[in-house]
Amino acid sequence: TKDWNGIDQVVLRSPHGASARVSLYGGQVTSWRNDHGEELLFTSSKAIFKAPKAMRGGIPICFPQFGNGGSTELHGFARNKIWMIEDSPPPLHLNDSHGKSFVDLLLKPSDDDMKCWPHSFEFRLRVSLAADGVLNMISRIRNVNGKPFSFSFAYHTYFSVSDISEVRIEGLETLDYLDNLCQKERFTEQGNAITFESEVDRVYVSAPNAIAILDHEKKRTFVIRKEGLPDIVVWNPWEKKSRAMGDLGDEEYKQMVCVDGAAIVRPITLKPGEEWTGRMQLKVVPSSFCSDH
Ligand code: BG6
């Protein structure tokens, strides 16, 4: 199917009614719905589905850099490129296709990309939807260069929530984080679940491989599992920043939270011929009685 700007999107469907949409622009997942057709990812009502920026929502991919300060644009160029569908990618040494609906995408650097980041790579992305509606993303990045290179990476995931003030994130307690609002100064999180009452923009260092986002009002919990991705980014722009962003409604920060599986604090280095794999799995479950109280 085509998206608003005529760019191809691939729709994945589970036998029970769940679905996911992946745009070839950025390899970005733009929708993930449960068996009842409810959208689980946030998309701004002011999102722009057009180059040169990723649309505000879904799961843009940050590569080869997260944030600014590197040699490429903010969050890297991968989210602003047209990816190709690859019919027969090299085998995944993980049993990921059985009983699933999936698509394989490929990104290789253009001449322009090579000007700001002079490294040859092949970036393979598999997005799959399991019969139970679980969304799986597997990124494989290979160095096809003659010399080593380093990169950072994030699945910049915009979750849809009913009210940010009622949201709690569990799994990051007592971890160290770098605060992007304080020149990346390092702090230590206290023992409680994370809640939101102002702008948050942090990179939690060496986070556990499972994190939960509890949406009290919707009585549901997102479970994020990750492999090869040591860090977790938590971002909510809150009121002032939302007003300054042209592609986000003034009040929409209440309906979103970004929680990204990422590799940022220690960039990944690949020698010639080496490949890195970073995997994220998203699942939504009803909140249990215990976590509700
Ligand atoms: C977050 C960053 O992850 O992404 C923020 O930490 C940034 O600083 C935000 O503003 C959104 O970035 P962009 O380029 O999608 O507007």
UniProtKB/TrEMBL annotation:
One of its GO terms (molecular function) is glucose-6-phosphate 1-epimerase activity. It catalyses: alpha-D-glucose 6-phosphate = beta-D-glucose 6-phosphate. Keywords: Isomerase. GO terms for biological process: carbohydrate metabolic process. The keyword Ligase does not apply. InterPro entries: Aldose_1/G6P_1-epimerase, G6P_1-epimerase, Gal_mutarotase_sf_dom, GH-type_carb-bd. Its EC number is 5.1.3.15. One of its GO terms (cellular component) is cytoplasm. It comes from the Eukaryota. The keyword Signal does not apply. Pfam families: Aldose_epim. Belongs to the glucose-6-phosphate 1-epimerase family. This is glucose-6-phosphate 1-epimerase. It comes from Cannabis sativa. The lineage of its organism: Eukaryota, Viridiplantae, Streptophyta, Embryophyta, Tracheophyta. The gene is LOC115706473.
